[in-house]
Amino acid sequence: MKKTLLFLIITLLFISCEKDCYNAPQPIVFEFVNSNNENLIANGTLTAYSIQDENNVGVQLTKTSDNMVILENVGAYNGVKNYKFYSNVKLFDFSIYSSEFKGGCDGFQINKLTFTGVGIDVTDEKGYYKIVLQ
């Protein structure tokens, strides 16, 4: 009887954990630099910046201690969403391509980002995007 009860408790625990399992998309991090590879936030050039999605809804941004910018709560959808970056230095557009996460949990994954704009150069630095604003 005790073994059966223990088995039922463990089974219920695993069943309830499966329903609460969610994979959030990996964060997107931007570093803004000039052509000399100087961080534009650190040197005071980039003082005002914001991002809006295609519905003109603002994206929450968090500045890190090493003067990079984390885009909060993006990529949790299946498909493509377009964004616009505004700043006192440059404007540019980018798109985030996301899909459902194929694994044991529900969730989404970001498949790729594409950037468009005059005078920008973007490099995927394995963990963040280095964006050169001319």
Please tally the β strands and state the result.
10
The poorly predicted ranges are 1-8
Q: How many helices in DSSP terms?
A: 1
Q: What can be said about the biggest beta sheet?
A: 5 strands, mixed
Shape, principal axes of CA atoms: globular
Please bin the fraction of helical residues: 10-25%
Beta-strand share of residues: 35-45%
Which value, in Å, is the CA radius of gyration? 20 Å
Return the structural class: mainly beta
Order of helices and strands: HEEEEEEEEEE
Report how far apart the termini are: 73 Å
Strand order of the largest sheet: 1-8-7-6-3
Mean pLDDT: 85
Sum up the structure in keywords.
single chain, 134 residues, five-stranded mixed beta sheet, 1 helix, globular
Please give a structural write-up.
By secondary structure, this protein is mainly β. The protein is built from one helix and ten strands. It has one helix spanning 2-19; strands at 22-23, 28-33, 49-53, 61-63, 69-71, 79-87, 92-100, 106-116, 120-124, 129-133. The strands form two sheets. A five-stranded mixed β-sheet has the order 1-8-7-6-3, with no helix packed on it. A five-stranded mixed β-sheet has the order 4-5-2-10-9, with no helix packed on it. Strand 7 and strand 8 (106-116) form a beta hairpin. The protein starts with a helix and ends with a strand. The model is unreliable at 1-8 (pLDDT under 50).
Secondary-structure map with pairings?
Elements: H1 2-19, E1 22-23, E2 28-33, E3 49-53, E4 61-63, E5 69-71, E6 79-87, E7 92-100, E8 106-116, E9 120-124, E10 129-133
Parallel strand pairs: 1-8, 2-10
Antiparallel strand pairs: 2-5, 3-6, 4-5, 6-7, 7-8, 9-10
